[in-house]
Write a structure and sequence with these properties.
Blueprint (H helix, E strand, L loop, with lengths): L2 E6 L3 H12 L4 E7 L2 H10 L4 E4 L8 H10 L7 E6 L4 H10 L3 E4 L4 H12 L10 H9 L9 H6 L2 H11 L4 H8 L3 H15 L4 H10 L10
Parallel strand pairs: 1-2, 1-3, 3-4, 4-5
Amino acid sequence: MTIRVVLADDQALLRHTFRLLLDSAPDIDVVGEASTGAESVAVARRTEVDLILMDIRMPDMDGIEATRRITADPALAGVRVLFLTTFETEELVVAALRAGASGFLGKGIEPAALLQAIRTVAGGEALLSPAATTALIGRVLAQPSPRPTQDRVLSLLTAREREITGMVGAGLSNEDIARELVISPATAKTHVNRAMMKTGSRDRAQLVVFAYENGLVAATPPR
């Protein structure tokens, strides 16, 4: 299955470089480019795309606002956004995730790692490593959120789903969760998928945000 990618960056040279790299992969196809945030939204709406490789600082509309509009559009429900930027501050990481992004990378990433990151995010997984990004997100999202606690949504989760949502927030994979709870990876995946459905999370990254904003990570048993 080919992953269809749109490149959104205001620097034409970088877009050209990324296109050469991505088109060298047999399972990735660049189907569009955008030089502004507004253009990235327009391209997403008129192109069959699976993933947008998004920069943050762009003229006209920044990548975070563009992501917010893309993820809010029901017609683009299957589109993932992966940020690739030189600006890796805590505030921008959190803003990107709250806007609906599925991952956040620095432009210093190795080419092979970028290709794998695209495959990971296109497959519905979050690009959040326990050693780096999850710790960053946890520290910032543990602060009061501008959104009210979703008590009604929380009440929809079973005790097991709350526990597993907290473990996802702590950066555990389905395999990690299965080992911790002595269940099969398939069962862990089922619980994660049900939690995503009940919380309205587009993907695993959004479930991480939900877990932190609603205090579920603190409830996760120590490893």
